[in-house]
Amino acid sequence: MDILSRPAEEFENDQSLEAMWAIKAYEHAEVYFNILCSVDPKLLRLTPHDDLIYRLFREEFPKFDVNFIKEDELKGEEAKEKWRPFCERFKDIIEDYSFGTLLRIDASKEYDENNSILVTRIQFYAIELARNRERVNDIIRNKFNVRKEKGG
């Protein structure tokens, strides 16, 4: 059994566990970003439930700006009240829906210390699906794929 899949209550501020979570979140971010650089984002399927996630996200958050994430819109008290029920709808649908996952704040930039925020996996899916379907992530492939091809 993977230690990261065990109940969080079993671990109270265990720094080695926090380090494992950080490594896992970073690895996920790195893989996802490399895929964005290589594939047309509009064609990406992140889960078998992409259509449902996207539809419900835009129904619940029609004016949410996915280009640039404002932390208050995800983690402020008012935002939490709206996000919590959205996230819980996926509890039995999306595996690891509440895992900590890194999200780029500014969709036009790569992951780095200043452009990353920790969100739940379902928030990541909702926002990245919107970015992909609404062509926001096209800039990543155009901007960073060229750099990768040139070896930089």
TrEMBL record:
<protein>
    <submittedName>
        <fullName>Protein PBDC1</fullName>
    </submittedName>
</protein>
<feature type="domain" description="Polysaccharide biosynthesis">
    <location>
        <begin position="17"/>
        <end position="141"/>
    </location>
</feature>
<dbReference type="InterPro" id="IPR023139">
    <property type="entry name" value="PBDC1-like_dom_sf"/>
</dbReference>
<dbReference type="InterPro" id="IPR021148">
    <property type="entry name" value="Polysacc_synth_dom"/>
</dbReference>
<dbReference type="Pfam" id="PF04669">
    <property type="entry name" value="PBDC1"/>
</dbReference>
<dbReference type="GO" id="GO:0005737">
    <property type="term" value="C:cytoplasm"/>
</dbReference>
<dbReference type="InterPro" id="IPR008476">
    <property type="entry name" value="PBDC1_metazoa/fungi"/>
</dbReference>
